[in-house]
Amino acid sequence: MSILVVGSVALDSVQTPFGNAKEALGGSATYFSVAASFFTDVRVVAVVGEDFPEEHLAFLKSRSIDLEGLVRVPGRTFRWAGEYGFDLNEAKTLETQLNVFAAFQPEIPKAYKESELVFLANIDPDLQRQVLGQVSLPRLVAADTMNYWINGKPEALRETLKLVDILLINDAETRQLAGEPNLVLAAQKILSWGPTSLVIKRGEYGALMIRKGGWFAAPALPLDSVFDPTGAGDCFAGGFIGYLANTMNFEEQNIRKAIVMGSVMASFNVEAFSLDRLRRLTYPEIEARYKAFKRLTQFEDL
């Protein structure tokens, strides 16, 4: 089943203690769509400038990602520059150039309007609602957001959350959005606004899912090579929603499996800069790592 994703396609410049990448392929919609493409068909709605390299388009097409909704307009592509210290959980933003992304008004192609799964990547919550207004009765809507929108457009974000089934944010954003330092109480408040599930991305500490019926926790896999965490959250979302699209099973037990698959995809992403690890990733590797996650959490009573 196809997923419609609306977000950014960008050029990133990243510095970590282990190296750097300049003007590399990035953006929330990019990371999400590449990760999800291992499980299902993906349709992208985004904007790039006339300077966007053809080689990046060729790579996305090689993953069978539908780019009818990716428009090229006069101007420069969205750019982000960031730096990580040895604490790879937090990026220091050095520069953000919105460029053509500043005037982005998502137009959903006719062929995309019947998409049954929609992922609203990290964009203006008013634009997120505009997207949903152009789609016919999706079976599942998932969304991401960030502190910029939580601070700047809290009421608009609350309106969007009324239309969302699953919200994926990190633990700091959860507390900030709810205005509540206790994570349990913060999660409960957010669920009362509309979503049926809240998935909290916790980087090297794994992920949590909170539903009205209870909690589920998944660890992060210990890795011996971590080079660049940029896009890990979007790859998590891609693996998570991609698995749900592949199975079309939205029961809690299957959502738990999807969370582990999201963690699998994020764990591969951090092993190289940009999308370089996912470029050479194979499905047997994904299956093997999924089994490694299962072994990590299995135990028996003595």
Automatic annotation (TrEMBL):
Residues 21-272 form the Carbohydrate kinase PfkB domain. The keyword Translocase does not apply. GO terms for cellular component: cytosol. InterPro entries: Carboh/pur_kinase_PfkB_CS, PfkB_dom, Ribokinase-like. Keywords: Kinase, Transferase. It comes from the Bacteria. Gene3D superfamilies: 3.40.1190.20. GO terms for molecular function: kinase activity. This is Sugar kinase. The lineage of its organism: Bacteria, Candidatus Methylomirabilota, Candidatus Methylomirabilia, Candidatus Methylomirabilales, Candidatus Methylomirabilaceae.
